Amino acid sequence: MSSQQQSAALDGWFQALGDPARRGMIDRLCRGPASVSELARPLSMTLSAVVQHLQVLEASGLVRTRKDGRVRTCHLETNALEGAERWFAGRRSLWEARFDRLGEYLAEHDEHGKPNKKR
Amino acid sequence: MSSQQQSAALDGWFQALGDPARRGMIDRLCRGPASVSELARPLSMTLSAVVQHLQVLEASGLVRTRKDGRVRTCHLETNALEGAERWFAGRRSLWEARFDRLGEYLAEHDEHGKPNKKR
User: Fold this and answer.
1) Is the dihedral of CA A49, A75, A4, B53 positive or negative?
2) Angle A116-B31-B13 (CA atoms, 0-180°, nearest 5)?
3) DSSP at B18
4) B81 has a chain A CB within 8 A of its CB
5) ∠ at Cα B87 (B83, B93), nearest 5°?
6) Can you tell me whether residue A63 is helix, strand or coil?
7) What is the least distance, in Å, from the CA of B78 to any CA of chain A?
8) CA B32 vs CA A11, A30, B59, B75: distances in Å
9) Torsion angle, CA of B82/B84/B88/B93, rounded to 10 degrees?
10) Does A86 touch chain B (CB under 8 A)?
């Protein structure tokens, strides 16, 4: 995946996850595949609104759906969720590296920024 | 934090992160605090557009800013990024638990779903 494709994927994932109903649908799908009506059951919204949220999730790549006869079954794309999680792990490693360098600097310098004398 | 506050925080974090310019600003702030003009430098957009993105990041709680004299300095709120990362870790533990149960079931049953005889 090019960095441009990766960035577009992150756009889609985060935009899709910025809504409580869509996060609720992801929660349900973590427990296993579900039909559209199973996804709709706990949500107090019309089936048409549920289908719209599902389309956002599917377009982002977080969910895939498959039609078996008259029932559409929804599955979680765990790879996509893991990709989004990796973005956070990458940022964390950046700021942790900075805190480590800051810690080293403070250990090696006095409060005026002068190198500590070797004891 | 109540679950309603937590959900509102997740809405704000993910909506803020669903934009490549705002993610670029987060990347920069992982390396240390920066002024608004430092944040703007690598971005090909007007300062006013940068300030608007910064306001979205600040409203979401991912970034805080402080005015020192005439310079506004931006800092990363690592707690907020860690909170968003925890959401992914929570989902992952749900689906991993399901895969574990599925693996146990498959190990204990034959291809017709009948329990395996003890050997």
Assistant:
1) positive
2) 135
3) S
4) yes
5) 135
6) strand
7) 8
8) 24, 36, 20, 7
9) 60
10) no
CB contact, 8 Å: A43 with chain B?
no
Asked if this assembly's ipTM is beyond 0.85, the reply is yes
Kindly state the DSSP code that residue B112 receives in the 8-state scheme.
Answer: T
pTM: 0.88
- pLDDT tens digits, residue range B46-84? 999 999 999 999 999 999 999 989 999 999 999 999 999
Q: Which residues contact B87 (CB under 8 A, 6 or more apart)?
A: A23, B10
Neighbours of A60 (CB within 10 A): 22
Give how far B31 is from chain A: nearest CA, Å: 6
How much of chain A is in helix, strand and coil states, percent to nearest 5? Answer: 65, 15, 25
Chain centre distance of CA B38:
23
Per-residue model confidence as pLDDT tens digits over A59-76: 999 999 999 899 999 999
Cβ contact, residue pair A23, B7, below 8 Å: yes
| Other CB atoms within 10 Å distance of the CB of residue B68 | 8
B1: tokens are 């934090």
As a whole number of angstroms, the distance between CA B17 and CA A86 comes to: 14
